[in-house]
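Hi W., the flavin-adenine dinucleotide complex you wanted:
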Amino acid sequence: MHTLRNNRTLHQTEVVDIIDVTPRMRRITIVGESLPLLGIGLPGQWMKVFVPTPGDEPPAGRAYTIRQFDRAFGQIAFDVVLHGDDGPGSRWAGRARRGDRLDVGGPRAGHMIDRGAASYILAGDATALPAIAAILEALPDGCRAAAFLEVADKAEERYLTPHPDQTITWLHSGIFFPGTTGLIERAVKAASLETEDCQVWIAGESSMMRSIRAHLLLDRRIIHPAIESAGYWKLGTADHRERD
Ligand SMILES: Cc1cc2nc3c(=O)[nH]c(=O)nc-3n(C[C@H](O)[C@H](O)[C@H](O)COP(=O)(O)OP(=O)(O)OC[C@H]3O[C@@H](n4cnc5c(N)ncnc54)[C@H](O)[C@@H]3O)c2cc1C
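Structure:
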């Protein structure tokens, strides 16, 4: 079933599974009658999930990446970073139960892999892991990739298992939120990178993303069309979103 909200089609879904992929990343699987009809096929596609809010407030729409799609069963799984109770998305995910009902809007654009690229550079914090994992899985055989990923600690690293052609540099934010420490920016700046004919994908906390993008454009001279970047959240701002 689907309904309309502000002229947008919303799909009615129900939570059928909840697992903790890592201590701070919770996978929510939803099922819905209209989900088999959705155009989902690219890594990094996302949707707006309307999560319940406390009191009489209407549900709040938050962006989450589609991590798995099972067309036959009409199921979508998305992974939520549990960053505390200060936002409705994270607060709801921390208490989610099978049977919870959610409206979802989308799907929205994903990442088009340039199959001719000589190498890939990826950078992101925990919120970008679902998209980065999907991009790494979709890269052509033999395509080298260097990924810079900031998570809270070592336990979060089990989120993905890289292919031997893929080098992952893990950064640990410790007591701070991943994406806010400056560690990932420093790691990218210090790295020896293959920038010839490369393709770049960066997402996560807005200031972090902008700093890495500026470095790759200005210092490494990577051309603008080779870089796709998105601010997935911004420290101190609710429901922040930006794309270049
Ligand atoms: C295209 C796209 C895809 C995304 N995919 C994912 C995904 O797959 N998984 C995922 O977890 N997130 C993803 N995000 C990020 C997610 O939408 C934001 O983190 C969102 O702000 C979370 O909503 P909230 O209700 O928890 O917090 P909000 O109400 O938006 O914010 C409340 C407070 O929490 C802070 N905050 C928000 N996010 C974080 C965070 N990650 N860490 C620490 N503090 C935070 C804000 O700065 C603010 O102060 C994606 C964003 C975009 C634009």
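Residues 119-243 form a domain with the Rossmann fold fold (CATH 3.40.50.80).

W.
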